[in-house]
């Protein structure tokens, strides 16, 4: 009788013989999703390049961004228009620059962070690029593992905030990358009300997936700036968002929202950097959407393309990995987190790579790449076709099972 390990090895060799070339690494929109916004490319601004107030958007100026577009996203994000800036194509750059401004100039009423011991709390697993950016700017990262039920560990966060070195915290409040979890109102209110030893402590509230619902339930974003004000900490939160995964990822529009004092601070430092953002891109986006309802309708078209892919992932994981692993079933966003047996994730990813299936490196979703249990694998289902996705997830499952069987056989 062949052992389980042998039969999995045979299955694995059969996959190798297929010469696969599949990629589940990055949460990029598929070409079909990008096509949904092709009308953006055809908008003829030649005849009308002015905003509603008649300003010629071809010229310099308008540092806040085009108001028509800010109005649309103010409604979607639940932020007053006056407190929401529209900027360049990448919110990640806004996050980077915000931290650089804090390092070099300090936050309103605070000292520059540069030269001090500065730490950020990093709920983990989290977004790898947040962590790469934090590390590159010399900021210490403190991983805060999620609780078993997937919620934030508020007690641990509160304890860390007693340390004056803790100046920031990353948070993707809706359909988080990669866990898919969403912060509820009680948690949000607790976060903005908690005492913090550092007066300039800020939550980097990265609402990248605020409108990316995968079900009929389309919750509105929490009024986090309002909660912070009510809690007596009006300046605690920086909100970031973008149209990257709404229209065309490489040429969208990013947004920064915060308290009036923080917005004024941000504008002061940005004004040294640029005479204004690409307002023609803002105008194109405003005309393309029309209004907030236009964005919602557009996102339902994304859902039609994306939801079947999440269903494929869940179906195959259920068929192959029930009893061996657990995984998230997100109701929005771009990712599924697979929790493989402890001490198998890096081996499974390595096995997948050597048969032509690229998976995000194990550990990538943790500060310093350090997954304490070596169990988390991030699956990004949007980019491949449905057929490619099926083949990739089938192969990944074999790799996870083989890694587990190898570990058991090794007796370690
Ligand atoms: N934040 C999160 C949580 C993301 O997942 C992504 C994209 N993967 C980004 C920000 C990047 O956004 P942008 O394209 O606006 O820089």
UniProtKB/TrEMBL annotation:
GO terms for molecular function: transaminase activity. Signal peptide: none annotated. Keywords: Aminotransferase, Transferase. It comes from the Bacteria. It holds the Pfam family Asp_aminotransf. Gene3D superfamilies: Aspartate Aminotransferase, domain 1 (3.90.1150.10), Type I PLP-dependent aspartate aminotransferase-like (Major domain) (3.40.640.10). PANTHER family: AMINOTRANSFERASE, PUTATIVE-RELATED, ASPARTATE AMINOTRANSFERASE. This is Aminotransferase. It comes from Homoserinibacter gongjuensis.
């Amino acid at each position: 009788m062949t052992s389980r390990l042998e039969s999995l090895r045979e299955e694995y060799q059969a996959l190798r013989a297929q010469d696969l070339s599949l990629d589940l690494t990055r949460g990029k929109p598929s070409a079909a999703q990008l096509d949904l916004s092709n009308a953006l490319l055809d908008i003829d601004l030649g005849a009308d390049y002015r905003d509603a107030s008649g300003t010629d958007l071809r010229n310099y100026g308008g540092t806040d961004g085009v108001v028509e577009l800010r109005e649309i996203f103010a409604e979607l994000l639940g932020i007053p228009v006056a407190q929401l800036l529209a900027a360049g194509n990448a919110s990640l750059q806004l996050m980077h620059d915000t931290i650089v401004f804090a390092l070099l100039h300090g936050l309103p009423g605070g000292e520059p962070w540069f030269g001090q011991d500065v730490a950020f709390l990093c709920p983990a697993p989290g977004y790898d690029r947040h962590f790469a950016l934090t590390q590159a700017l010399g900021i210490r990262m403190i991983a805060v593992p999620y609780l078993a039920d997937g919620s934030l560990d508020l007690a641990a966060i509160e304890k860390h905030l007693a340390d004056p070195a803790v100046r920031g915290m990353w948070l993707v409040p809706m359909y988080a990358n990669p866990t898919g979890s969403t912060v509820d109102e009680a948690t949000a209110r607790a976060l903005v009300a908690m005492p913090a030893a550092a007066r300039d402590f800020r939550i980097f509230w990265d609402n990248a997936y605020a409108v990316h619902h995968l079900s009929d339930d389309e919750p509105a974003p929490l009024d986090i700036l309002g909660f912070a004000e009510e809690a007596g900490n009006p300046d605690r939160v920086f909100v970031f968002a973008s149209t990257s995964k709404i229209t065309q990822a490489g040429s969208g529009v990013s947004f920064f929202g915060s308290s009036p004092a923080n917005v004024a601070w941000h504008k002061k430092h940005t004004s040294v950097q640029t005479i204004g953002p690409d307002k023609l891109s803002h105008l194109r986006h405003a005309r393309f959407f029309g209004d907030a309802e236009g964005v919602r309708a557009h996102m339902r078209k994304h859902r039609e393309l994306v939801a079947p892919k999440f269903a494929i992932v869940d179906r195959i994981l259920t068929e192959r990995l029930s009893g061996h692993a657990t995984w998230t079933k997100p109701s929005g966003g771009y990712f599924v987190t697979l929790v493989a047996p402890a001490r198998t994730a890096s081996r499974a990813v390595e096995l997948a790579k050597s048969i032509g299936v690229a998976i995000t490196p194990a550990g990538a979703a943790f500060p310093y790449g350090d997954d304490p249990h070596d169990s988390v694998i991030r699956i990004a289902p949007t980019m491949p076709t449905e057929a490619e996705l099926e083949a990739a997830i089938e192969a990944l499952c074999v790799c996870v099972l083989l890694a587990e069987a190898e570990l058991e056989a090794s007796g370690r």
